[in-house]
Amino acid sequence: MSTYKIFTINPGSTSTKIALFEGEMELFSKNVCHDAKSLAAFAAISDQFSYRRDMIEKLLNENGISLSGVDAVVGRGGGLLPMEGGTYEIDDLVLEHSQKGANGVQHPAMLGPRLAREFADLYQAKAYIVNPPDVDELQDLARMTGIKGVYRVIHLHALNLKEVAIRHSAHLGRAYEDCCYIVCHIGGGISVSAHRHGRMIDGFDITGGEGPMAPTRCGSISVADLLNYCEGKTLEEVKQLCTKKGGVVSHTGRSDALELSQKAQRGDPYAKILWDTMIYQIAKAIGSMAAVLHGRIDGILLGGGMVHNENLVKQITEACGWISAITSYPGEFEMEAMAAGAVRVLNQTETAKRYQGISKFQGFEFDKKGMSSVE
């Protein structure tokens, strides 16, 4: 087992998680919730940098944690243009794009690279990001849409999705690159994805309104219905349905999935149809990914906080267990996944990639040739 020391930083919407690992052993971890009023004082997410950095330093000092001798610092990536999965060095281009949110998505994860680089420079360590939300490994068939010039890209929980797949492969005594899985992350956001031989070849753009309804996201709905809904509303109001105010929040004003499931269990009819519909949509999405993989599936893997709920797992198993064996990995492994990605590079079992700063998908050959129609 490697003895590399890795410090990981994961800025979230309302909290910042930090953890220190030695090899696979977690030496220290802390999740600090931020006061909403404190965060609201910042005009832009990038302005929160000093506030979050100072809080991390305070936590380390209060707990007597020294980063002296740390080999690498890994930050949660965000704000970057679509890229292949893997571990990336945090260079100046990564810093520039993450700070401004080059992909147009404003999320605190975009602070991760800058925070990681700050601490890495301070302790003469390597700085990395691992499988950021901007991972895009779609196969060509998953790109095309019914609108000329509009192509699909995806944003999902790539870090936890890939880590669950890597862990399950190790459990099977196989390499992730040799397996085919349907992998789900079921938490505040819900990602359903198809993995073939180490690549996430299809999935749903959860920040764009695709996929199952989630606690804070609307999921897929009819375009015509959405256009009718847009009347009298601003574009920003409608966009927030995709990431903050859709799904369970739109119906109940709250995003607590546990509370919703408890109300459903007590017989609240509104809560029950809402809870069951969310699970129904997850199962339907899993079925679509089974078709993508042509039924050749080594397992259906469920990760994320809501997987602790036995009713949810039971319903998904009843709906999809005929497709393949279902294995649950409750909770999130984001901190462990970030550390593991750095260790793979330091162990030289994986090569660190360099961010190119351009979208991975640049169109099809017929786009480049200027073809205006099928000939």
TrEMBL record:
One GO MF term attached to the UniProt entry: butyrate kinase activity
Q: Which PANTHER family match?
A: ACETATE KINASE (PTHR21060), BUTYRATE KINASE 2-RELATED (PTHR21060:SF3)
Predominant place of localization: cytoplasm
Query: Which UniProt keywords are present, listed alphabetically?
Result: ATP-binding, Cytoplasm, Kinase, Nucleotide-binding, Transferase
UniProt similarity note = Belongs to the acetokinase family.
Asked whether the UniProt record includes ATP-binding among its keywords, one would answer yes
Q: What is its EC number?
A: 2.7.2.7
Q: What is the lineage of its organism?
A: Bacteria, Bacillati, Bacillota, Clostridia, Eubacteriales
Q: Where in the cell is it found?
A: Cytoplasm
Q: What is this protein called?
A: Probable butyrate kinase
**According to its UniProt record, which reaction does this protein catalyse?**
butanoate + ATP = butanoyl phosphate + ADP
Q: Membrane among the record's keywords?
A: no
Any Pfam family from its record, for instance, is: Acetate_kinase
